[in-house]
């Protein structure tokens, strides 16, 4: 309350608008208030990092709320900075910029982005990535944003005074001690006053240098990597949280209006529409080498103001903050840097250990940068995406014959719309704070009797999300317009000789209390409660992409008909004849829907998610071994009919893998199903 009262009072003073008052509050010793403010903020950042680190080591149910409370305080401080700046007093913006850079960003946040682990560091890379996003997003100061962007071209050691050679109180094993070590690391350094001068060579000089090659040359764990390259290394080799944090920083830089477009261009993340605007303006004023520059495949050198802007901020880092980090005379090429970013993003989509949610964030960033030419997004990129898409197609085919094929098309259509909205959105969908929160694990996989259907459902949704993303990105990269719905075949008519038609089943499926013809039904016994055995007739029925295992009671007056008492999903039933009792048939009974897809059950799902949810088990007893085998065979046949129908409807999408130009997105008319088609008996 005291803090809020003081800040309200100071904001009222800042908005007085009198020059004498403005000079008074920004002169010594009153200006120390701003350095104390930033010092207090720095302590909060370190405390936040301790919370995040503690949560990673010892997850706790209350950790999310604790982290969010700390995040709220940090963001409140930043909004106070923003409110103070909005008063329009230039010296306040300068004081906040200088103190943020000198006390927090340069000595603490940027050095912690190094790839190698350093003991004794006061703040972790993930926390630093979040804080950089927050500062850029909330504190609207042009000089601060551009200085942070320029600082990304320097390695972490550029911020360490040579006489300390320490990073956050720890003596680095990668400190520049000998001249020979500098030469071995492909850098050249010299001591200048109290600063460490680092000259970084531009290693990538052509559009054919791919990011994996850059990683090989530079070694992601090397201390000589520029921070910009470290961000790209996080994308190509980091874990899920590091990838998300790095993508968040790049997306935040791209969305920061205070950042000069020339700095975005130097970083390699200038959106394609702005790149075209820049080249058009150059052509109009005659700055380009010729009129064809606008439509050229990109130049390897910079002839506009990019180098001037970047050099200006690097010079400011040298003069005001004692950081020397210069490039060789060739300068840095935005075209080459853009290719490096594209290489890193494409390599991200080829990784199988990154969550679909994070890949979607990478898809949004790639969509912002995606050029419609073969200059930067070249055939090599297309081949990598096609290879990854082929792997996803194989995974999708496995899911078709998995536990949830009846929901696969529904999930795919839903995720298609969501993914299209995400990657076509004007801004990223996630708040940067999500990288600090503990990852919610999926259902426990240590189920005693095999994989849980809930785990399989999570995996199916994950596979569908990645498949949809890769397909849409390929279409975008080729300049295609995405349809609102995925190109799949419509449902087919029910064959005349199907069990569903013979049983008199309609599209709504078997509901308890409805009557069915018991054609091919097999009598069986089952006990849902101990000591209470009941007699039923078992039917396995598939209807399009749906399927059920039905237990019906015969009607006393007409034994050819029965009343449905219980119906369970056919898919995922995993029928198995008991090894010791050949008249027993074991079935796994999964839910009819995934709980996280039902909004009405989302609260219950979140409460029990940490526990191992298990499936139901049925053991059916038949009068003889032949009856048991007959029931087993019937279930397999109907499951195969269900699988085949799902695969038939998805065939246009699966065939796109062979269609390199994706030119034909309209589904071909489905072939008529033959009335004599017989399903295979085996899975």
Automatic annotation (TrEMBL):
Any one of the GO BP annotations: endosomal transport
Any one of the GO CC terms: Golgi apparatus
Compositionally biased residues, Polar residues: 673-683
Residue stretches spanning the membrane: none
InterPro entries: CLEC16A/TT9
Signal sequence extent: none
Positions of the UniProt region annotated as Disordered: 661-683
Protein name: FPL domain-containing protein
Organism: Citrus clementina
Species classification: Eukaryota, Viridiplantae, Streptophyta, Embryophyta, Tracheophyta
């Amino acid at each position: 309350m005291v803090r809020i009262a003081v800040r309200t009072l100071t904001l009222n003073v800042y908005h007085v608008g009198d020059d004498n008052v403005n000079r008074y509050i920004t002169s010594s010793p009153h200006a120390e208030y701003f350095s104390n403010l930033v010092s207090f903020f720095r302590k909060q950042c370190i405390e936040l990092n301790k919370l995040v680190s503690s949560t990673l080591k010892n997850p706790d149910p209350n950790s999310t709320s604790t982290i969010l409370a700390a995040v709220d305080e940090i963001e409140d401080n930043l909004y106070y900075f923003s409110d103070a700046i909005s008063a329009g007093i230039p010296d306040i913006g300068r004081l906040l910029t200088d103190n943020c850079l000198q006390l927090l960003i340069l000595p603490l946040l940027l050095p912690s982005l190094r790839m190698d682990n350093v003991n004794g560091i006061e703040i972790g890379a993930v926390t630093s990535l979040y804080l950089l996003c927050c500062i850029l997003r909330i504190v609207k100061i042009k000089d601060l944003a551009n200085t942070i962007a320029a600082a990304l071209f320097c390695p972490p050691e550029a911020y360490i005074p040579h006489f300390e050679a320490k990073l956050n109180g720890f003596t680095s094993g990668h400190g520049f001690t000998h001249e020979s070590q500098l030469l071995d690391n492909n850098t050249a350094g010299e001591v200048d006053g109290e600063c460490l001068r680092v000259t970084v060579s531009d290693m990538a000089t052509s559009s054919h240098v791919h990011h994996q090659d850059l990683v090989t040359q530079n070694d992601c764990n090397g201390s000589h990597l520029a921070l910009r390259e470290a961000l790209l290394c996080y994308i190509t080799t980091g874990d899920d949280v590091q990838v998300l944090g790095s993508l968040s920083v790049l997306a935040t830089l791209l969305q920061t209006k205070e950042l000069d477009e020339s700095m975005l261009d130097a970083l390699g993340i200038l959106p394609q529409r702005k790149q075209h605007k820049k080249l058009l303006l150059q052509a109009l004023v005659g700055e380009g080498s010729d009129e064809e520059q606008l439509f050229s495949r990109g130049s390897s050198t910079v002839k506009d103001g990019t180098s001037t802007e970047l050099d200006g901020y690097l010079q400011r880092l040298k003069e005001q903050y004692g950081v020397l980090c210069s490039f060789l005379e060739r300068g840095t090429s935005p075209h080459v840097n853009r290719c490096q970013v594209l290489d890193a993003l494409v390599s991200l989509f080829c990784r199988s250990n990154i969550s679909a949610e994070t890949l979607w964030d990478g898809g949004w960033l790639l969509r912002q940068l995606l050029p419609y030419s073969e200059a930067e997004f070249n055939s090599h990129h297309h081949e990598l995406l096609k290879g990854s898409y082929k792997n996803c197609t194989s995974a999708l085919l496995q899911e078709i014959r998995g536990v949830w094929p009846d929901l696969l098309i529904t999930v795919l259509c839903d995720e298609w719309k969501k993914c299209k909205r995400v990657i076509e959105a004007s801004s990223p969908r996630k708040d940067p704070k999500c990288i600090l929160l503990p990852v919610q694990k999926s259902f426990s996989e240590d189920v005693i009797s095999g994989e849980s259907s809930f785990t399989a459902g999570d995996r199916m949704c994950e596979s569908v999300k990645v498949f949809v993303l890769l397909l849409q990105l390929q279409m975008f990269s080729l300049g295609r317009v995405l349809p609102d719905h995925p190109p799949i075949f419509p449902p087919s008519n029910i064959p005349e000789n199907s069990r569903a038609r013979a049983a008199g089943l309609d599209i709504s499926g078997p509901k308890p209390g409805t009557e069915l013809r018991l054609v091919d039904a097999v009598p069986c016994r089952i006990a849902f409660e101990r000591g209470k055995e009941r007699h039923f007739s078992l039917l396995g029925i598939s209807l399009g992409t749906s399927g059920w295992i039905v237990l019906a009671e015969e009607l006393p007056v007409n034994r050819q008909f029965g009343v449905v008492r219980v119906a369970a999903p056919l898919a995922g039933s995993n029928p198995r004849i008991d090894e010791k009792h050949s008249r027993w048939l074991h079935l796994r009974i999964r839910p009819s829907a995934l709980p996280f897809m039902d909004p009405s059950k989302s609260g219950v799902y979140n409460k029990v998610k940490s526990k191992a949810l298990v499936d139901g088990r049925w053991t059916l007893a038949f009068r003889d071994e032949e009856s048991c085998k007959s029931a087993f065979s019937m279930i397999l046949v109907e499951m195969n009919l269900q699988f085949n129908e799902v695969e038939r409807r998805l065939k246009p999408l699966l065939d796109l893998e062979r269609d390199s130009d994706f030119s034909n997105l309209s589904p071909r008319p489905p072939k008529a199903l033959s009335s004599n088609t017989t399903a295979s008996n085996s899975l």
